[in-house]
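Internal tracking record. Fields below are filled automatically when a chain is submitted to the structure queue. Please do not edit lines marked as system-generated. If the sequence contains nonstandard residues, flag them in the REMARKS field before resubmitting.
Queue: standard
Priority: normal
Entity type: single polypeptide chain
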Amino acid sequence: MFNIAFIAHDRKKDEMVNFVIAYENVFDGHQLYSTGTTGMRIMEHTQLKIHRYLSGPLGGDQQIGAMVAQNDMDLIIFLRDPLMAQPHEPDISALLRICDVQGIPVATNIATAEILVKALDRGDFAWRELVHKYKPEAL
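SYSTEM-GENERATED OUTPUT FOLLOWS
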């Protein structure tokens, strides 16, 4: 079981919902997390249970980033809207930066999301199980 987060900017929420519907069977059985509205929309259209954090602009991106910083997140699907300025762009940049620091796969578009989810379905995320198994205890 892996920890997976969903984040979608406003104009990408429908695309995210449709994506999760298409791969609901893959996501079932994993621990799912999301920013507020995105998670609510996914749960309205699927049978998946999602732990919802705050909306992105209200700190939800940072809450997911905290999980990444603790190495408690395995995959993030973050459908960004590259054509719309976001008022919380520093939070978005910080989340993407901490994913790079921790080596957490993050998809920012539907094509990459599909590749990562198919890898998850094939069992190609076994390396993350080793990360969890040998995770050093917090000081």
